[in-house]
């Protein structure tokens, strides 16, 4: 995989104000490795909103978490390709055939194709929730099962918590991309994230991409906050 980002920090533009998102994108584009746009943004502002952010030239992780039958996911991804996102994701629980279809959808795009990433277990679910869904074992057992399925289907990697990175890195090898939210610089407010890790520690455990939202976008000077995070990363990052 030849895709190279300037650095591993992707900032989550979690705002429903398009002008604010655009201002943040302009300020952050020269600093971060990429920006993440999610469901709330895309449903509100669609392709034209996406393009206003993409016009800053920054790579975009379009976090739409597709989950449907294989043919529909393949078609959905085809429809997104003209936006040229750097990263797209699908729910790994949609099954191996669905993930294969997602991967096939980008097959003809060559080296510039988006990474297709699997979402394993949503961090909002605890053991009781997954037992009620009929799944045995702990959430981390299920994360490992789904990461294995994602790898078997040919996906580029998974989203996982920082506390799962070390194990998945061992299980899935060095080429499998691990995208990690729940990252907090030392001393930063955790907000609603329950099990946070610092950017440096997450990279040391084997993360490839760090998704960081509020510590950057809610700072008085977001570009400076992102720069400070980058300066604290180990040199090899
Ligand atoms: O503001 P904060 O740094 O907590 O934002 C993290 C971003 O990563 C948000 O966009 C959130 O939706 C996303 N995310 C997460 N936990 C997951 C998956 C995605 O926090 N398991």
Write the layout of secondary structure elements.
Layout: E1 9-12, H1 18-28, E2 34-38, H2 39-54, E3 60-66, H3 70-81, E4 87-91, H4 96-105, E5 115-119, H5 127-132, H6 139-152, E6 157-159, H7 162-172, E7 177-180, H8 199-205, E8 209-212, H9 214-217, H10 222-231
Parallel strand pairs: 1-2, 1-8, 2-3, 3-4, 4-5, 5-6, 6-7, 7-8
Helix pairs in contact: 1-2, 3-4, 6-7
The structure holds cytidine-5'-monophosphate (C5P).
Highest-level CATH class: Alpha Beta
Low-confidence blocks of residues: none
Oligomer: single chain
H/E element string?
A: EHEHEHEHEHHEHEHEHH
Strand elements, count: 8
Ligand identities: cytidine-5'-monophosphate
Structural class: alpha/beta
Query: What is the CATH topology?
Result: TIM Barrel
Number of helices: 10
* CATH architect. name: Alpha-Beta Barrel
Describe this structure in words.
43% of the residues lie in helices and 16% in strands. The protein has a single domain, classed as Alpha-Beta Barrel (TIM Barrel). It is globular, with a radius of gyration of 17 Å. It has ten helices and eight strands. The model has no long low-confidence stretch (mean pLDDT 94). By secondary structure, the protein is an alpha/beta fold. Helix 3 (70-81) links the parallel strand 3 and strand 4 (87-91). The chain has an eight-stranded parallel beta barrel, surrounded by six helices. Bound molecules: cytidine-5'-monophosphate. The site of cytidine-5'-monophosphate has 14 residues, from strand 2 and strand 8.
């Amino acid at each position: 995989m030849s895709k190279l980002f300037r650095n591993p920090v992707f900032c989550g533009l979690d705002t429903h104000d398009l002008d604010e998102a655009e201002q943040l994108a302009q300020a952050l584009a020269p600093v971060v490795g990429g920006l993440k746009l999610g469901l709330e943004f895309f449903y509100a502002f669609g392709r034209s909103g996406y393009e206003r952010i993409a016009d800053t030239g920054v790579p975009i992780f379009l976090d739409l978490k597709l989950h449907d039958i294989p043919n529909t996911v393949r078609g959905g991804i085809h429809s997104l390709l003209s936006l040229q996102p750097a990263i797209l994701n699908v729910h790994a629980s949609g099954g191996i055939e669905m993930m294969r279809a997602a991967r096939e959808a980008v097959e003809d795009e060559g080296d510039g194709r988006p990474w297709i990433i699997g979402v394993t277990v949503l961090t909002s679910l605890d053991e009781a929730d997954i037992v009620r869904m009929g799944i045995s074992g702990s959430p981390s057992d299920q994360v490992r099962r789904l990461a294995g399925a994602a790898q078997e289907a040919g996906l580029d990697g998974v989203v996982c918590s920082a506390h799962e990175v070390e194990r998945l890195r061992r299980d899935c090898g060095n080429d499998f991309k691990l995208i990690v939210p729940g990252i907090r610089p030392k001393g930063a407010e955790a907000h609603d994230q329950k099990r946070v890790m610092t950017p440096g520690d997450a990279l040391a455990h084997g993360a490839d991409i760090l998704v960081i939202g509020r510590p950057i976008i809610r700072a008085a000077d977001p570009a400076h906050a992102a720069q400070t995070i980058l300066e604290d990363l180990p040199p090899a990052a």
